[in-house]
Amino acid sequence: MTDKIKSELVAIMRELRFSAFLATDDDGQPVIRPMSPIVEDDLTVWLVTFSSSNKIKQLKANNRICLAFADTKSWKKEVTIFGRAEIIDDLTAKQHVWNISGESLEKYFPEGAHSPKFCLLNIQIDKVQWRCGEETVNKTYLPE
User: Fold this and answer.
1) Among 4, 9, 25, 128, which is 20 to 30 Å from 143 by CA?
2) Structural domain of 60
3) What CATH number is attached to the domain comprising 113?
4) Count: domains in the chain
5) How does pLDDT run along the chain (144 residues), one tens digit per residue?
6) pTM for this structure?
């Protein structure tokens, strides 16, 4: 992937952060829920959730995910990530994401990043499809 494409994907995902939806599997039934992914410049994608959430139970059984970002106002931008969610229990990684989240996670986790309720997911990307502007066909990126 070129740096230009990576930058385009990161910009779209950051812009559409609050219009993102995660699909997991619940014993053969897709389950979709809104999420607010944290996307780093190198295309590392993080999700924060509660350790007791149903999605964690589902991901422990099947970690395959689909994460979709959509411009619901104009429908001119979208990014869909196909991959796997890895549950991260490393305190250094949790603190890093806590610091870069861009929102106040304290309202959900008053004990901070070390809270047992704070669960961090790292999305391992298998494939990305996206489009931007007037394009009608998605472009595809497959990691090396």
Assistant:
1) 25
2) 3-141
3) 2.30.110.10
4) 1
5) 688 889 999 999 999 999 999 999 999 999 999 999 999 999 999 999 999 999 999 999 999 999 999 998 888 899 999 999 999 999 999 999 999 998 889 999 999 999 999 999 999 999 999 998 887 788 998 887
6) 0.92
